[in-house]
Write a structure and sequence with these properties.
It is a single chain. The protein has about 550 residues and is mostly helical. It is built from 23 helices and no strands. The protein is about 70% helix and about 0% strand. α4 crosses α15 and α15 runs parallel beside α20. The N terminus is likely disordered.
């Protein structure tokens, strides 16, 4: 076996050393299909380059330093503005705005209803328009909505502005996922997706501190909840303007990188077999999205966890208060929730990357909120049990690590620009659907036990755990199917998934080095990785578990 690999390596090396006519870049561009990815045209214009591990590491570091902070900030402010309703719930907004219990629940659900309605438009805009400009504009618009919400003093006006807020925020999660797919290799995507999703936890801490401070401001002119809305909204608008200035639209258009660095940034993504950006809307990709069974499974998975997340996030502070804490203490005790989420999101992403198995990690994560829900359902509410009830509440908050894991898992197993965006839209439509349903399963009339909502959450946690074990089995079937197709086309059936090999290991692995040489020897016109093919039609696509 080793001799065969050495002979193959020698053959590739001989081919690489063969003198071939120099091809005119203009001819290379014409050879690229009009349906191919923009990255293929970019490489055809500038030529393919070889680069060292150190050069790639330098480019990756520059991408992390510029792109990552921007999407972290965008996701942080989206979560801050979205969660502001929960923060002000214990500062009298229900009395000041004359809200009934069910009306408050609808203020939580309407935001996700707007996101659900606008997801198809978000997917279309992310394919057709420059990504950086789309995200920046959305940030400014929802920041303005958050600030304007301070002028709302009744259910009707709050409902209308929360709907507008949700319509602009519909862009952020799919765009952050699109940016992650566009700038990082598949082996790097899980951790990067966990970083921006961990902003949920950071928001808990920062939002709780801000609310605690601003909540002490007493004015005869405006209500306390209005002060909080203005503060969050104005900060978001300022950040949105900065985002528009500093965020490039794609690796090919990143002016802060040199030309050589831009080529490396694009070339390193070829192994993903996912494309970079096509700016073409393809209906065959949309059709494949809706007929793809694995996408349906992830949709069910994200709906289940979002039902639980939606209820807990909206009623979390009220549940804590009903453990027997004061309003301000309830805010303070919600702060560890943020720390727990940051640690569990990044820690589980690191573990999934390390072992290369997201399904098992998701099942393990689902066990923690299951135990927490059981504790909150069975432990009596009294002064002596506050600690146990808090433990149950904190265990339930570990659910926050499941959603980003599902996002990353789905994204890593989807190819083709339009299909990536439509699949992401489906995931976020599932998330919105769950978050619409979740708050409606809770009612302040069920206080202090909230049994109907907690029982529904428990069922969802068990469902998530089961799906985490079943989905990898289906992905194994797809990988065997693709291996058979490669063999029928005269290709090697068993190939190394270069996109999932860590860069350090790649440097040391002779097998992967061979795979790199084989890929380099291929013409760019024949490289499925940049031909903007959906994953089911790309026999070179390898699914990850």
């Amino acid at each position: 076996m080793a001799d065969d690999r050495l002979k193959q390596a020698s053959a590739v090396a001989d081919t690489a050393d063969t003198i071939t006519p120099v091809e005119d870049p203009a001819q290379r561009v014409q050879a690229i299909s009009s349906r191919a990815d923009k990255a293929a045209q970019f490489i055809a214009e500038h030529g393919e380059v070889s680069f060292t591990y150190e050069e790639e590491r330098k480019v990756l570091r520059r991408i992390d330093m510029r792109i990552l902070p921007l999407i972290l900030g965008a996701y942080f402010f989206q979560q801050l503005d979205k969660s502001s309703l929960s923060y002000v719930s214990i500062f009298g907004i229900m009395d000041d705005a004359h809200l009934e219990s069910l009306e408050y629940s609808w203020l939580g659900s309407i935001l996700y209803l707007a996101q659900l309605i606008f997801q198809p438009l978000a997917a279309f805009l992310l394919v057709k328009l420059p990504t950086g400009k789309v995200i920046g504009t959305a940030v400014v618009c929802w920041g303005a909505c958050a600030a304007i919400m301070a002028a709302c003093t009744n259910f009707g006006s709050l409902l209308a502005i929360r709907f507008l807020l949700g319509s602009f925020e519909a862009m952020i999660a799919p765009s952050c996922l699109a940016v992650t797919q566009m700038w990082w290799r598949r082996s790097e995507q899980t951790l990067r997706a966990s970083y921006w999703n961990a902003m949920n936890g950071v928001t808990f801490v920062v939002g709780s501190l801000v609310t605690y401070g601003l909540g002490h401001i007493v004015s005869t002119k405006i209500y306390r909840y209005q002060t909080i809305f203005i503060f969050c909204g104005v900060l978001t608008v300022i950040f949105g303007i900065a985002f528009l200035v500093f965020m490039p639209d794609s690796p090919m258009e990143a002016k802060y990188l040199s030309e050589h660095e831009r080529i490396i940034a694009v070339e390193r993504l070829r192994a993903n077999q996912m494309g970079v950006a096509s700016r073409q809307w393809k209906w065959d990709h949309v059709k494949e999205t809706f007929t793809d069974f694995k996408t349906l499974l992830w949709f069910i998975l994200i709906v289940a966890i979002s039902i639980a997340s939606g209820g807990i996030s909206t009623y979390g502070n009220l549940i804590l208060r009903d453990f027997g804490f004061t309003n301000f203490n309830a805010i303070l005790f919600s702060m560890p929730t943020g720390v727990i989420q940051v640690v569990i999101i990044i820690g589980s992403a690191w573990l999934a990357t390390r072992i290369g198995r997201k399904g098992i990690v998701i099942t393990g994560l689902a066990c923690l909120p299951t135990i927490g829900a059981v504790l909150m359902l069975t432990v009596p509410r009294n002064e002596h049990n506050k600690g146990v009830l808090l433990l149950g509440y904190y265990l339930v908050q570990c659910l926050g690590a499941i959603t980003p894991m599902v996002y990353a898992w789905s994204a890593q197993n989807t190819g083709g620009d339009t299909k990536k965006k439509t699949s992401s839209a489906m995931m976020f439509m599932g998330m919105c659907t769950g978050n619409i349903i979740g708050p409606l399963l809770y009612n302040t009339k069920d206080a202090p036990l909230y049994r109907p909502g907690l029982i529904a959450n428990l069922i969802m946690f068990v469902t998530v755990g089961v799906l985490g074990l079943l989905i990898p089995m289906y992905l194994m079937v797809l990988n065997r199917w693709h291996a058979k197709k490669r063999e029928e086309l005269g290709k090697q059936a068993n190939v190394v998934d270069e996109s999932m090999v860590r860069r350090k290991d790649m440097q040391e692995s002779k097998a992967v080095e061979l795979e790199q040489n084989e890929q380099a020897a291929r013409n760019i016109e024949d490289d499925n990785g940049l031909n903007d093919l959906p994953d089911l039609k790309n026999e070179d696509f390898i699914y990850v578990y």
